[in-house]
Amino acid sequence: MSTHPERGLTRRGLAGILGLGVLDLLMPGRALAQESTLLAEGGEPPFRVYGRDEWGARRPARTARVISRPPDRIVVHHTATANTKDRSLAQAFRLSREIQRFHMRERGWDDTGQQLTISRGGYVMEGRNRSLEAIRAGRHAVGAQTLHHNRHTIGIENEGTYSRAPVPSRLWDSLIDTCAWLCTAYDLDPFRAIVGHRDLFATDCPGDIMYARLTELRTRVALRLDGGSDKEAAEAVPPSTKSDAPAPSASSPSSSASPSPSEPARPPASPSSSPSPRTSVTPPRENPLPPDVGAPG
Ligand SMILES: [Zn+2]
After folding, report:
1. Which pTM does this prediction carry?
2. For the chain, how many structural domains are there in total?
């Protein structure tokens, strides 16, 4: 049931009108834990996360290792794949299969590298095997998504390439949901926990546009955890950084791939928003290799 992408309407309109009891009836796929916060109960996601059986995962080469120590960082990635206009559930499932195929066949990994995947349509999916069971238990399924940091980080791959293009609002809303869920499940401070891949590895990932919005992401997640409404959260962030705001020099979607001379280079990490100093990285010698999926297929 494809309830997920409609939740923006749900939150901003229907929730106040109908109340959540009705919403639960209308949207049985969603277990809404609290009215305004949509927080998880323990590690249970308060929204639909599509499992591996649903997107058609193949068997992993090896079962993932689950460790009892929870992750202390949530790493935001982009997949560096096409910015497709296909927002369907079928496309989301196709993306998950392509990433798994790429990571297993081309990278030679045991399975999908990242623990979670979000499509441009806003669908959230399990990546590496055992990720959901581990999160529910407050544990960590070790992935292959941030070299040298896989034992203490959990990775979210966001479909698309965000070096120039704006982030679709459906994807953005799901990323906020997902980070809030993980911060609840692991008792993390979003201002410390949420980082971009480039904070930990020499990479452009997750793209300048998405990276520039991580402070907004942390703020939105923190407000969610504090019980604020989405309306309050939306008012708390500058209008220029809201979802689907065009890139500074982008005049049309098709221009998103063209160079943008005025676009600032990689933003400097401020102490308050990027707790993890960028580490110097030695070239990879063996698996796990840099995780971003490149152009699968
Ligand atoms: Zn990445």
Report:
1. 0.70
2. 1
